[in-house]
Specification:
This protein has about 500 residues and is mainly alpha-helical. The chain has a domain of about 260 residues. The protein is built from 24 helices and three strands. A three-stranded mixed β-sheet has the order 1-3-2, sandwiched between helices. Strand 2 and strand 3 form a beta hairpin. Helix 5 packs across helix 10 and helix 13 packs parallel to helix 15. The structure holds zinc ion (ZN). Zinc ion binds next to helix 5 and helix 9. The site of zinc ion has 6 residues, from helix 5 and helix 9.
């Protein structure tokens, strides 16, 4: 990072302390209580403060800083799953054209966040703590309520600059928490306290009225999407209880304070709703078991525990997958393949199983099989980036870069801001000895992780190689200008 952004960041944090005192926390106090799902007019119209296109660019700039500072969960199977869930909910919420950038943060503390411009984040810790998809959905639906009502813009009364101060504080708290609570460490008191110190500077603490509005809309979204709205108060209450045991408050409850009146309001609203007992897909348990095995400090013990369950004949699909993944983690590859076989036989098109088969084959260095399994998944689910990631690993090891390349190009047209796909393209182009594309891809990777100056160097390298090609030179120069403008806008 250059010196300038660093100084700027410090300025943001210092200023946020001062402004915290001036934040109108209870602007709408004294209004009559609202019942049902009707929407009150709160504060001033958000569109006067920021327009959606600007918000979107600011959101993407914030995301680049997040990607520069915070570890994201490495396996896209989990991200793909949460993203699909988010869009399913958004289709039933108040958005005209929902467009999100979803990140899964590698942090075992319970947290989720949404910032203007459609950046939605969820910690692995939240997925591990939830007991059902309905509970994860309830947090996402609540966050969607804040986004659709543009609460953030409406609680920052002096425009863009103040929004950046608050967003800078939120970024610092997420980065600080993930540094202490990621996969490398135990979920301990120290991590929680350091997060809390950072959150103390964080202006993104929604007012009571905004919380109630997000709850109300969230419940509506959950119900319309076929989820059990009761999951919301149940999960929020569990978070609150766990905070008493842990000795600190989970980040989510700091930014979304759970007062007893808010909880009572939630419970009253769901009291009359019908209890839903619809059949659930195993997606949630499969994603959760994947995280459990990956985080486990003693995978050998997990093998024993899952084996016992499977041998009893009453194992769920998730336990069977858990056994498979624990065997894979402990390099018992033939046993892992045998454990996966019944799952694949029963549900041959399920992406979790196809990609697990690919992972086992990769570990066995059977790259052709790994490619074949990932390719089956890719042809069934061409939007899933988890399949692309396996295709890249297997394809490059098996010398299939030329087959891989059109898939990566296609994926980038759909996800032009996806850091991981640019990385895959850089690797693919390197194995094709296509230096110009390597430089271009590296420029995007550096830009998307908040390092403009280094990105510029890579574009200049590409420009040197493209010197006789006028249209390519023009294209590269245009991209360079865009990157500078987007970065400058964020610096303010
Ligand atoms: Zn909230």
């Amino acid at each position: 990072m250059s010196k300038r952004p660093h100084r700027r960041h410090q300025r943001l944090l210092t200023a946020s302390c001062a402004l915290l005192l001036a934040l109108p926390l209870a602007a709408a106090d004294g209004r009559p209580p609202v019942t049902g799902f009707d929407l009150p007019e709160l504060g001033q119209p958000a569109d006067l403060i920021a327009d959606p296109a600007l918000e979107r660019r600011l959101g993407q700039a914030w995301l680049r800083q997040l990607q520069a500072t915070t570890p994201l969960w490495r396996d896209d199977l989990v991200r793909d799953y949460i993203e699909a869930l988010l869009y399913r909910l958004a289709a039933q919420a108040d958005f005209s054209a929902p467009q999100f950038s979803l990140v899964v943060v590698d942090d075992r503390q319970v947290n989720a966040f949404a910032v203007p411009g459609g950046v939605v984040g969820i910690n692995t810790g939240l997925i591990l703590t939830a007991e059902s998809e309905d509970e994860v959905a309830s947090v996402l639906a609540h966050e969607l309520g804040h986004l659709s009502q543009r609460h953030f813009a409406r609680s920052q009364d002096a425009g863009k600059y103040n929004q950046w101060i608050a967003l800078g504080g939120l970024l610092a708290s997420i980065a600080a928490a993930a540094a202490g609570g990621g996969s490398g460490s135990d979920l301990g008191l120290a991590a929680g306290l350091s997060a809390q110190a950072a959150v103390a500077q964080n202006q993104l603490r929604y007012s009571r009225l905004f919380e109630q509005e997000a709850d109300r809309l969230g419940l509506q979204t959950l119900t319309r999407s076929g989820y059990d709205p009761r999951a919301m108060p149940v999960f929020f209450l569990r978070m609150e209880r766990s905070s008493r045991q842990l000795g600190y408050i989970p980040e989510f409850l700091l930014t979304h304070p759970l007062s007893s009146s808010r909880l009572a309001d939630l419970e009253r609203r769901v009291a009359t709703s019908e209890r839903k007992l619809s059949a659930r897909s195993p997606d949630f348990s499969l994603a959760q078991v994947r995280l459990q095995v990956a985080y486990s400090a003693s995978p050998d013990e997990l093998v024993t525990a899952y084996r016992k369950e499977v041998d009893s004949g009453r194992a769920s699909q998730a336990s069977q997958l858990g056994l498979t993944l624990a065997l894979l983690r402990t390099s018992q590859l033939p046993a892992a393949r045998a454990s996966l076989a019944p799952l694949l036989a029963a549900d041959p098109d399920r992406i979790d199983y196809l990609l697990t088969a690919s992972d086992i084959a990769l570990a066995e260095r059977d790259y052709d099989t790994a490619w074949k399994q990932a390719d089956s998944a890719w042809s069934l689910y061409p939007d899933r980036r988890a399949a692309l990631e396996r295709l890249t690993r297997a394809g490059l090891a098996a010398g299939k870069a030329d087959l891989l390349r059109p898939r990566l190009d296609r994926a980038l047209r759909r996800y032009p801001n996806d850091l991981r796909i640019w990385r895959q393209l850089a690797d693919c182009a390197a194995s094709q000895k296509d230096s110009l594309t390597v430089f271009r891809a590296r420029a995007e990777i550096l830009f998307l992780s908040g390092r403009l100056r280094l990105a510029e160097e890579q574009i200049n390298n590409a420009l040197r190689l493209a010197r006789d090609n006028y249209s390519l030179t023009a294209q590269l120069n245009k991209r360079l200008r865009e990157m500078r403008e987007l970065d400058e806008e964020f610096r303010g």
